[in-house]
Amino acid sequence: MQIFGVDIGGSGIKGAPVDLDKGDLAQERHKVLTPHPATPDAVADGVRQVVGHFGWTGPVGVTFPGVVTDGATIRTAANVDDSWIDTDARALLGDRLGGLPVTVVNDADAAGVAEMHFGAGRDRRGTVILLTLGTGIGSAVFVDGVLVPNTELGHLELDGHDAEKRASSKAREDHDMTWEHWAVHRVTRYLAHVEMLFSPELFIIGGGVSRKAHKFLPHIEGIKAEIVPAQLQNNAGIVGAAMRAAGR
Questions:
Q1: What does residue 220 show for φ and ψ, rounded to 5 degrees?
Q2: Which of 71, 77, 137, 222 might form a disulfide with 154, Cβ 3.0–4.6 angstroms?
Q3: Are strands 2-8 and 60-64 parallel, antiparallel or unpaired?
Q4: Of all helices (H) and strands (E), which one includes residue 182?
Q5: Rounded distance between C-alpha atoms, residue 98 and residue 167, angstroms
Q6: What is d(CA 148, CA 74) in angstroms, rounded to the nearest whole number?
């Protein structure tokens, strides 16, 4: 069975048909740059470009980098334009895609669902936390495999700032930090803070940096929980969006 998944990020909008039996992309993904400003209409046009690239005419799952309630309404928009707040994203995107059925889900929640079903969290019980380190920090919390939606742990306070302003991949790039410095002084401090609050058995590190886990994970010490990179890497959001559109 194939369903289309789209992942809206702070820097890019990417998508592809997903093979839900394998938990992998059925075709090579297509990506367009996230517009700036990332207003609802501009982003919806980007989603239309991605879906149209494949000539897709079926259900579409779409991730959003913020809190999504009732599978439709946007409540926060930290890394896109504030005009998204209170937007009915399901209606907007459905209209822009010519009436195709659309399901909208928080981006980290989607990635977490995919990793728990097909990837690093498969068959894991207890508390598992996926963290996407990208333009911001997204989070997905699972207790015995059940998602606690819209946790937004990237906005915990760390050293007087939003954690994502300190420990995201973008923060590393903006401040020209080495992988080791970022891992030791930023990521470790953030993980220690989250661990103190939730005591997870497992951290899954997702986002684009998961492809480069060997550059920073070995430098993280003093965390009791197991720490592993996301197995689906940066495709997890696309896969999870498709899963949610299929009701999984």
A1: -90, 120
A2: 137
A3: parallel
A4: helix 179-182
A5: 39
A6: 17
Other CB atoms within 10 Å distance of the CB of residue 60: 26
pLDDT tens, per residue, the chain with 248 residues: 999 999 998 889 999 999 999 999 999 999 999 999 999 999 999 999 999 999 999 999 999 999 999 989 999 998 899 999 999 999 999 999 999 999 999 999 999 999 999 999 999 999 999 999 998 999 999 999 999 999 999 999 998 999 999 999 999 999 999 999 999 999 999 999 999 999 999 999 998 899 999 999 999 999 999 999 999 988 999 999 999 999 88
CA pair distance 18, 172, nearest whole angstrom: 31
Residue position matching structure tokens 């579409």: 60
| Burial of residue 164, with CB atoms counted within 10 A of its CB: 0-12 exposed, 13-18 middle, 19 or more buried | buried
Inter-helix orientation angle 107-118/236-245, to 10°: 90
Q: Residue 184 and residue 109: Cα distance in Å, rounded?
A: 26
